[in-house]
Structure prediction request, 253 residues.
Amino acid sequence: MKNAIISARGVCKSFAHNGGQVHILTGLDLDIYEGDFTVIMGASGSGKSTMLYALSGMDRATGGQVLFQGEDIVKMREKKLAALRRSKFGFIFQQMHLVSNLSLFENITVPGYLNQTRSAADTDQRAEQLMAQMGIAKIKTHLPAQCSGGEQQRCAIARAVINSPDMLFADEPTGALNRKNTTEVLDLLTELNRAGQSILMVTHDARAACRASRLIYIEDGKVVGELELPSYTEAEEKSRETQISAWLAAMEW
Ligand SMILES: Nc1ncnc2c1ncn2[C@@H]1O[C@H](COP(=O)(O)OP(=O)(O)O)[C@@H](O)[C@H]1O
Ligand SMILES: [Mg+2]
Prediction:
């Protein structure tokens, strides 16, 4: 039996727009399991980002419950929610959002210092390890602008996991990368997941979807399809791609 780490029940999200309301999520029920590499797919505008932000408390749902480790983050006070996001969640985006005047090393360590669950020396040591794992140890003093997109995204991944989050959220993390950098980033995410990291990733890239242990397809903010997969192995990539392509075709992707 897998443990649900996040449980969404009747989750709604509406935005004020042009004097009216647009309803993007209208009663989402979804469990995300510990240890899974869950991937959410769906057409552009189907509500993938909105769902990710609601499930991670980045942007509060307007109704329903989002239980994380048994606590409802929809009703949580802002200060507590901010602390939870900082200590228990990691985030990666299509745009890396690195701080432009900080070195790669500083970009990674600052959230560690802010969190204060480790000593500064331990944070530095973990940052060094992560930079080695991400292949960016040699450029630790570079500013983001002096790095390629792939290097910046690998730095952003290290930053996202510096506090050993319970859940790593990723919104189109390969959306701005070329093929080679995409593979590198996906390999790193796969490696983190193999080491036990729970991941929830939104993508519209079928190659990225290949890394999932569970695929979820959404349409108009609702789950319309689901596919369970064995853990990713490179040797099975081709047959996996075929299986996922067929599934996506059935979803009218
Ligand atoms: N702040 C907002 N105000 C109004 N509409 C929004 C807002 N954010 C997203 N939307 C709308 O919600 C829908 C889903 O958006 P989004 O979750 O970004 O989709 P996806 O990530 O699947 O492309 C889109 O139609 C978008 O225009
Ligand atoms: Mg999006």
The chain has one domain: 36-48+79-250. The first helix runs from residue 48 to 56. The chain is about 35% helix and 25% strand.
